[in-house]
Design goal:
mainly alpha, 4 helices
Length: about 130
């Protein structure tokens, strides 16, 4: 019984961690991003978050294998644990994809800023 409570407690913290990144700090950084390095920093933040979430996906997949291979240890809760864990995996994978998409967007913005900055320097001496 005690191990089940600990297991469910750890799962509830994973559910909270699966939320897409949307903190006041990152929102402020995105709003203030005007230079190439600003956008690269935001992209790096999202890439790091995606890597951390990918590690959670691996942990959840290992846990799902445990639930499938040793379902007799979990009794009646085995199927519930398997379906809950599979849902967490899907949610984490969606978060990884969203974070990587956001990182790619900011990398693209950074490269456009770099290109427009270089173009303005080439045109300015002609004036």
């Amino acid at each position: 019984m005690l191990s089940m409570v600990a297991l469910l407690g750890s799962m509830s913290s994973l559910t909270i961690a699966a939320e897409p990144i949307d903190t006041p700090e990152i929102r402020m950084a995105i709003q203030k991003a005007t230079t190439r390095s600003d956008h690269e920093a935001v992209a790096e933040y999202y890439e790091n978050a995606a890597m951390q979430m990918q590690a959670k996906v691996k942990e959840e997949k290992d846990l799902l294998e445990q639930y499938k291979n040793k379902s007799y240890l979990y009794g009646r809760q085995a199927q519930d644990l398997q379906s809950h864990t599979a849902a967490l995996i899907r949610r984490h994978e969606q978060t990884v994809a969203a974070d990587m998409q956001e990182a790619a967007l900011h990398r693209q913005m950074a490269s456009k800023l770099d290109g427009s900055h270089a173009a303005s320097h080439r045109q300015s001496p002609a004036m």
